[in-house]
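Query structure, 156 tokens:
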């Protein structure tokens, strides 16, 4: 009766039998990559390198901003590695955020001359974030000479 048990376990749909391990599907995500592209040939080369990947649903290339956008069930690290390997170009995850998302866009470490128009480099550096927090003495001095402060300095 061992053979019948084995066959019944293979065709068991109730879920009470042995559990088979299935690969977990990656979530749908959009990956933005910075790749330097100069001409239409570079653009085609980058696009073809990613189109054949498993799980890719759409590919968008913006040559002017040197940006490659890939949407699908993909791993960002694998997409970057594939672009770098197939094209021979340096590829990195898109390092820029919109200008409005940063409190101090001209702070050292954030401002980047190579960034596309309207973008600055994203930074998690604590020294850059310190610029956003003013100390109590700084706040006291800046508000003391403010036009909106009715008890401001009489010299003004």
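Result returned for the query:
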């Amino acid at each position: 009766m061992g053979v019948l048990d084995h066959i019944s376990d293979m065709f068991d749909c109730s879920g009470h039998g042995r559990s088979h391990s299935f690969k977990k599907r990656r979530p749908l995500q959009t990956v933005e990559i910075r790749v330097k592209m100069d001409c239409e040939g570079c653009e085609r080369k980058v696009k073809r390198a990613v189109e054949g990947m498993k799980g890719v649903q759409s590919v968008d290339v913006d040559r002017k901003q040197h940006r490659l956008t890939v949407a699908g069930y993909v791993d960002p690290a694998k997409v970057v590695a594939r672009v770098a390997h197939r094209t021979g170009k340096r590829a990195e995850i898109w390092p820029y955020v919109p200008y409005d998302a940063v409190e101090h866009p001209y702070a050292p470490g954030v401002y980047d001359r190579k960034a596309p128009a309207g973008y600055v480099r994203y930074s998690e550096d604590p020294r850059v974030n310190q610029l956003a927090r003013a100390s109590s003495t700084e706040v006291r001095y800046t508000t003391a000479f403010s036009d909106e402060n009715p008890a401001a300095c009489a010299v003004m």
